[in-house]
Amino acid sequence: MIDLDTQLLPDDITLPLLWLGLIANSFGLFTTLFSALWGAIAGYIALWSVYKLFKLVTGKEGMGYGDFKLLAALGAWMGWQMLPQIILLSSLVGAVIGVGMILLRGHNKNIPIPFGPYLAIAGWIAFIWGDTINNAYLTLFVPI
Q1: pTM, whole model, 2 decimals?
Q2: What is the DSSP secondary structure assignment for residue 24, as one 8-state letter?
């Protein structure tokens, strides 16, 4: 909700979330420490790379550093294996809500919409139903 109001994800929230995920998984709570560490690294680098590429192409900043840190924190909690699902889900949730805001509320297309809430929603969905979603996808689309 802070990101919606201020367009900022405070380090006071994202960094402890990242460290708590690494600490929790040092005991193997949700995934291995190896997976959590590389989840944090890959989560940060994935969105940082998108940011840098977008800035190189357009000369504008497309997202903030808080988004990188939030995805790194989600990677620290769930491991690198869940990052593609989180990124796809956050894009899907963001597209649905963004189009809905434009069509139903007349939201100005030129006003930026923060990505953090969609990352958070996607992270929650992946945390609760991630394995079920992955298994359903593999069952439907990957021949055995």
Answers
A1: 0.89
A2: H
